[in-house]
Amino acid sequence: MQEETAEALEDRDHLEALSEAEFLAALNGKGLVMGAFEAEVLVAFRVLLFPGKSRDNLGCDAGLSNAELPYVVHQELSCVHPQSRGQRLQKKLGAFLMAELAKDYPEMRWVFATVHPGNRASLNDKFEQGMEIIAETEKYEGKKRYILMKKLYC
User: Fold this and answer.
1) What is the pLDDT of residue 14?
2) Structural domains counted in the chain
3) Alpha-carbon distance 137 to 80, whole Å?
4) What is the DSSP code string of 51-89?
5) Which residue has better confidence, 55 or 82?
6) Which of 32, 73, 29, 68 is nearest to 51 (CA)?
7) What's the pLDDT tens digit per position in 45-67?
8) CATH number reported for the structural domain that contains residue 80 in this entry
9) Where are the alpha helices (DSSP H) in 105-147?
10) How far apart are CA 10 and CA 103, in angstroms?
11) Rounded mean pLDDT of the chain?
12) CB of 43 within 8 A of CB of 89?
């Protein structure tokens, strides 16, 4: 579904696909995954990852200390099948996932995301969640991205 979503975009650079290893990590306790189904067919999904002290932790870009990095969450990916757009599935899945995060992982303190500057839908999603742009940089082998952040629950 990542590929179908990417192919339907105006600019494929707007979506940075997750690797199989990242999906497996999220499914095996290093994150959260939620899907939306229509007639038992997956039409959208969203992934949160807990990067821990990895070098890819966006908390490093925000100047968090090494001791703070385990309390960072990444909003990694939202995919909505092209035929299911317009139903606000990205927003709905985000709200559900963030509620699950608050309930199951209350120790988490920061949520981060990267968004292509031209991806208005994803930027609006992040702004509606109260996230703010903290930097513009290159990620994912030189692709331009905003880094967004929100402090959680404290």
Assistant:
1) 56
2) 1
3) 26
4) -TT-TT-TTTTTT--TTTGGGEEEEEEEEE-GGGTTS-H
5) 55
6) 73
7) 899 999 999 999 999 999 999 99
8) 3.40.630.30
9) 120-128
10) 36
11) 88
12) yes
What pTM, to 2 d.p., does this model score? 0.86
CA distance 77 to 63: 23
Q: Which of 76, 67, 63 is nearest to 30 (CA)?
A: 76
Digit-coded pLDDT (tens) for 83-128: 888 888 888 999 999 999 999 999 999 999 999 998 888 899 999 9
CB 74, CB 58: distance < 8 Å: yes
Q: Which domain holds residue 143?
A: 2-151
Distance between CA atoms of residues 25 and 48, nearest Å: 10
Q: What is the C-alpha separation between 95 and 97, in angstroms, rounded?
A: 6
